[in-house]
Amino acid sequence: MVTRLAQAKLWNAPLNERPTAVHVAPCILDHCPHSQTLLAKIKAKAGIPVVEGTHPYLPANIFA
């Protein structure tokens, strides 16, 4: 995921655009066993605000 930050910068360079924030999805934050490590690396490398969570992942009773 962190290497994709560099790719996103390269993809946006020809358009002279810059990302304004990185959004980390709830599925990563709530279910990935490495989420805190990933989040720390993203915050260290991004240089822009990091938003934890983008939308509700799933209702708790979705299969009820």
Describe what this molecule looks like in 3D.
The chain is mainly α and 64 residues long. It has one domain. It is built from three helices and two strands, in the order αβααβ. It has helices spanning 2-12, 26-31, 35-46, and strands spanning 22-24, 50-52. Strands 1-2 form a two-stranded parallel sheet. The protein is elongated, with a radius of gyration of 14 Å. The mean pLDDT is 83.
What would you say about this model in short?
The chain is mostly helical and about 60 residues long.
Counted up, domains total: 1
Poorly predicted regions are none
Strand order of the largest sheet: 1-2
The H/E string reads HEHHE
What fraction of residues sit in β-strands? Answer: 5-15%
Give the total of beta strands: 2
